[in-house]
Amino acid sequence: MKKSLVTIVICMLAFAMVVGCGSKNNNTNNAGGNAGTNEGTKASFKAGMVTDSGTIDDKSFNQGTWEGLQRATKDLGVETKYLKPAGTTEADYLKEIGNLYDAGFKVIVAPGFKFETAIFAAQDKYKDAKFVLIDGAPHTADDFTPVVKENTVSIFFAEHESGFIAGVATAVQLKEGEAGFIGGMEIPAVQKFNWGFQQGVKYANDNLGTKISIKKENVVYQGSFDNVAAGGQLAAQMYDRGVKVIFTAAGGVGVGAINEAKTRAKAGKEVWIVGVDGDQFKDGVYEGDKSIIITSAMKKVNSASFDMMKAEQDGTFPGGKTLTFDIKNDGVGLPEENPNLSEDTMTKVNDVEAKMKSGDIKVAAEKGDLIK
Fold this sequence. Notes:
The protein is of the alpha/beta class. It contains ten helices and 14 strands. The protein has helices at 2-26, 61-76, 90-102, 116-125, 159-174, 188-207, 228-240, 252-266, 301-314, 343-358, and strands at 46-50, 79-83, 107-111, 130-134, 152-157, 176-183, 211-221, 243-249, 272-277, 285-287, 290-291, 293-299, 322-325, 332-333. Strand 8, helix 8 and strand 9 (272-277) form a beta-alpha-beta unit. The longest helix is centred in the first third of the chain and has 25 residues, at 2-26.
């Protein structure tokens, strides 16, 4: 009897080891392409992205969105791919959306307001697909009323809050001098960055003893997101007028401004740039570990795209909803590390951020009370 019991136990242990090993192997996802591995037990899927104008490493929406999808590949085992359309028309976008769908990519991410009419059409044409539209809401070309179907989620950001905290940080760190703003296209998201930044500087002037001025001539919208040369020219003109720091919310135009600031910094001039969307500190490095990026007003686009992939995998995809990533849910703010901001500056910035989260400080999403 004892021998029989021992034999049964040994057999059970052996069986458990075989099942355990088999389960581990079965949970390894190696779908090929850009897919990573996922040690968990949840099913994976294929997620695609259609890029907006610009490159995949544009330091802006394309790059941030793709970084979130790459993280989904690494952490969740999601197979990911992006396609770059030939142009920026609704037809161009729909063509690549269709190409992704036909290749089995049934979760499709579109970064930017230019996709609004294309996603409006796609959410009906591909009803078994799911769409993530960042910084936009689906609508027709003739009627701007948002229509977010059950297979689509629309995501926006509180750019004014991100701009505000960056304005406070910039003013507290520099204490005095002139600031400027270079925007890309004059659209709501870019305008809110500008308005928030000016409100943040004004708050610091009124409450924290700073003396930063912003003149009307130093607030400019270039009109595009890809004219690098124009960004450099605009920045040069502002710096020549005595501006010390420029907030750029302009994609490739901002890259031109960063390049101009780096050239001047190498020549010994004190000039600064406030980065945008992601942490642009590395993009501003001009010598050793010195960077002209004083801080960055971040929209955590990478977190938004990753979070939607995680939601899809968890079965909680928020279809039909419009979400806002703001200061209260850490969807906007400054980078975790700000080498060019002092400890004293960060103490004051953190205090202001806490007041924003509690509602003691409210930032207007419209033009409001700006510096004259």
